Amino acid sequence: MLRDVDYVLRKLDWMRAEGIWPNGLRYLWTDAFGVVLYVSLYTETGETRWLDEAERLVADVERVLGRRRGLRIGEAADRDGQYFHYLAMWLFALARLGDLKPRYRARGVALARDIHPAFVIPGRGVVWKMQEDLSSPYPGYGLGSMDAYDGYVSYRILDEDELAPEIAQMRDLIEHDWQTLDIEQDLGLGMMLWLAHFFPAEPWAEAQTRRSLRTLETMWVDPPGYFSRTPWLRDTKFAFTNFGVSLGLQASDVWPERVGTLNAFFEDWRSGDEYDREAITWVMACTSHLPAAFVSRGPIKSC
Q1: For a tag site, which of 7, 38, 193, 210 has the least CB within 10 Å?
Q2: Sequence-distant (≥ 6) Cβ neighbours of residue 27 within 8 angstroms
């Protein structure tokens, strides 16, 4: 597992100087990764300023994106509504910060209880995207393919006792799905590897890890060294999704040479579009170089 703190510090300085992050527009997925990144920096350096940064970020996300129930996808006008998988990642971030400051764990439990009934249809699935007030599904969106897994893991990391009924509903959805679920997109495969590593002995995790690695093998393009978007789009690549694959590979403790190769490739490669300066690209790059708190199976401990 990589522990490149120097890379992360340089990239954070660059992003702040360029107004990219954390002083850019709020975006829940990126900011969830950012909170965990700050916790990782604390665990690696022992410097409490990183916990202060994490708390400031949580406060700003709640101020900008917080709604009466849940959190909006992003600050930009076209990032309305609520995604369950973004909320689940935010819950994981609160759990990791909550390992060190318990009030954030309690805040996460309250949020999970608040949003769960709006998104989850027991016995059927989890709605992928909801209206911003959680009154109904967002037009044109159905059930998410991985959302039950997202919720199951985040809920268990938060508090298995307090969220036992919600966990049971997610587990039931997984039991009806894991044997046939076949992921074919790079980020989804990486995130499934990451989710599965928390409970590797459970049948769904064992099967999905094998299946994900088998599919990723068909997507590796070397030279120059990246995972394609899907097996049939070998020329299509995204930096931030590859960094998500990197997280999954490091969580699974496999293919370290490919992690190094893709990190090196995407450090210099540019897509020529907005992603070259999007916070999601570079915060996830930092995670790829310092996964730390993302792959800790037990609670994070104070330094």
Answers
A1: 210
A2: 73, 74, 75, 76, 79, 279, 280
d(CA 78, CA 51): 31
Task: Decide: pTM greater than 0.90.
Answer: yes
pLDDT in tens, 2-36: 999 999 999 999 999 999 999 999 999 999 999 99
Nearby residues of 180 by Cβ (< 8 Å), 6 or more positions away: none
Higher pLDDT, 242 or 303: 242
108 or 302: whose pLDDT is higher? 108
Instruction: Determine the residue type at 33.
Output: F
Dihedral over Cα of 153, 278, 288, 270: its sign? positive
- In this predicted structure, the answer to whether residue 297 has a pLDDT above a threshold of 70 is no
Q: C-alpha distances in angstroms, 223 versus 234, 236, 265, 281?
A: 12, 14, 10, 22
Q: Are 253 and 293 in contact (CB under 8 A)?
A: no
Mean pLDDT of 128-157: 98
Q: Return the H-helix or E-strand segment holding 112.
A: helix 102-119
Domain 22-177 has CATH 1.50.10.10: yes
Collapsing DSSP states into helix, strand and coil, what is residue 218? Answer: coil
Measured CA to CA, the distance from residue 78 to residue 98 in angstroms comes to 31
The structural domains of the chain, with segments of one domain joined by +, span: 22-177
Please state the φ and ψ torsions of residue 27, each to the nearest 5 degrees: -150, 120
